[in-house]
Specification:
single chain, 304 residues, Alpha-D-Glucose-1,6-Bisphosphate, Chain A, domain 4, 2 domains, 9 helices
Length: 304
């Protein structure tokens, strides 16, 4: 049985949709969002939908099955991920996080495009594209601001006096990571140092790859509360332009029975939207940073 020749409409659709997306991202960043550095909802949802619809227009003569549309749309999404790595200099883990959203939206756009093309209605096509364009522009010109706080707590079988010194600074963590993102390369907290035991002292949180968060102690209540502002964070492609860590806090609550509740709080600001998707990841990562540090403090404090 002779092999079916490769149809260049497939490749043309994938290349054109990706070049279109890169151009729109550049245009949006240059004229609208370059001052704030925010990556908006439209770039991660509406633009991939448009990419899928563009793919469908190039593939309209191929009579692709639903399975084929999904497969080729994933190929288009993979191309987008690779181009983002090369031209937008995104980190590998960042691209891994964004890929489910990109793939789903491109696939959805592919099926929306197929339905529109089947209707063979120019009026419908113009209406849909006009609506998407208006949504994109509306989102692009709006202010985007989102901050959140994540809180966690653990019980430690020790008094606040025994725990306090390990809260202010602690020796390197040697325990193996159990969070999957840490295991595939995302830096995890390793140690902290402090320049003094007083309000205004400098503090450094050192991560596994040598990255350092520079901190300044804002509240120093012995055996009760340590709050610190983040005054400098590393130039890492996984976080720069995506999230700013604002401040952290440890609160010790004496339970009156020989145990202490240690509370860890972190505040951060997101620069990527939609927050309903990215904040799931931000909360998960922040929570696992908390737990790794707090469990280490627990281990150190409960040693006899």
């Amino acid at each position: 049985m002779p092999r079916k020749p490769f149809n260049f409409s497939l490749l043309t659709g994938i290349l054109f949709s990706n070049l279109f997306a890169l151009f729109i991202i550049w245009l949006t960043g240059y004229f609208i969002t370059n001052k704030s550095g925010v990556m908006i909802y439209s770039e991660f949802v509406i633009l991939p939908l448009l990419m899928g619809m563009i793919n469908s227009w190039f593939w309209k003569s191929l009579n692709l099955s639903s399975r084929a549309i999904v497969g080729y749309s994933c190929l288009s999404g993979l191309t987008a991920i690779l181009l983002s790595f090369v031209f937008l200099r995104e980190g590998v883990i960042c691209l891994l996080i964004v890929s489910p959203l990109i793939f789903c939206c491109i696939i959805a756009g592919g099926f929306i495009g197929r339905v529109i093309l089947k209707k063979q209605s120019q009026k419908l096509s113009v209406s849909v594209f006009s609506l998407i364009f208006v949504l994109f522009i509306t989102d692009a010109v709006q202010e985007h601001h989102y901050e959140n706080m994540v809180a966690d707590e653990i019980i430690i079988k020790a008094s606040p006096q025994q725990i306090w010194k390990n809260v202010v600074s602690f020796e390197p963590i040697k325990k193996k990571n159990n969070y999957w993102l840490f295991n595939i390369g995302m830096p995890s907290p390793a140690a902290t140092t402090v320049t003094g035991h007083y309000k205004g002292a400098g503090r450094k949180c050192i991560f596994s790859n040598g990255y350092i968060f520079d901190e300044k102690i804002a509240t120093y209540e012995v055996n009760k509360e340590l709050t610190f502002d983040i005054i400098g964070q590393p130039q890492d492609p996984e976080i720069m332009g995506h999230i700013d860590i604002l401040k952290g806090q440890f609160i010790l609550k004496d339970n009156g029975n020989g145990t202490t509740t240690l509370v860890g709080n972190s505040w951060y600001k997101l620069h990527v939207f939609p927050t309903w998707y990215y904040d799931i990841w931000a909360e998960s990562i922040t929570r696992n940073v908390h737990l790794r540090v707090m469990e280490h403090i627990k281990e150190l404090s409960e040693k006899r």
